[in-house]
Amino acid sequence: MSAAFRKAAKARQRPHRERAQPAARTKLGLLEKKKDYRLRAHDYHKKQNALRALQKKALDKNPDEFYYKMIRSEVKDGVHVIKQPKDEITPEQVKLMRTQDIKYVEMKRVAEAKKIERLKAELHLLDAAGSGAGRHLFFVDSEREVQEFDIAAHLDTVPELVDRVYNRPTIATLQRETVKGPTDPVHLKKLAQQRKNQYDLLRQRIEREKAMFVISQKIQTRKDLLDKTHKVKVKKETTTGPAIYKFKFQRKR
């Protein structure tokens, strides 16, 4: 074989390239390559140094030494995990605690309900439920009566007092007595603002009473779940209601 032929064959050869290591296998160690002996040597000496440090730490350790983590940890699947402490409480004690919680919430709910009734009495039940302005319906027999209907005459009052839903005296009462109460517009505006604040407070108390009722229901549901009776969840728990379970029927003796 001539030198020219060998030179041409060598030129046609493809250069050799090392195969790259996949990223998913980097945790298994360095890939065996021809040119990575320095990296493999560095990795080997690093592991050897770590083993020597652990051996020295084990030799220097006092075998009689005790620390609480020895009894508070356990090995699961080759991994040390901390044992979770168990509550030293019986199911009867849990039921009693739930009962006390329900009693406290019910006591606060009843107190809130009494305050709501007191506020409603002070406000004369005007829009107490927050449903907006009420409507007063009048029934007539014909379309002509609808067109000729005079609400002031029907209510026996003056037109200026028709828009009132409370404290609306009749014409006979106005002839007999003078109008009582403030008539100054500034004072009337102040009273209207105070009445609005009272309605806002009433609405807040109604919402709080509803929230306490939902809380008491959820506590009662958790108390019922302490029984070992077979149960099936019918509806999930929401912000406005507790979870609903269907319990297996058991005949009482």
Compact overview of the structure:
This protein has 253 residues and is mainly α.
What does the model show?
The longest helix is centred in the C-terminal third of the chain and has 40 residues, at 185-224. β3 (231-235) and β4 form a beta hairpin. By secondary structure, this protein is mainly α. Helices cover 50% and strands 7% of the residues. It has a domain at 91-247. It is elongated, with a radius of gyration of 43 Å. The strands form 2 sheets. It has a two-stranded antiparallel ribbon. Strands 3-4 form a two-stranded antiparallel ribbon.
Provide the descriptors you would attach to this structure in a database record.
rRNA processing, two-stranded antiparallel ribbon, 8 helices, elongated, mainly alpha, two-stranded antiparallel sheet, 253 residues, Probable U3 small nucleolar RNA-associated protein 11, nucleus, SSU_processome_Utp11
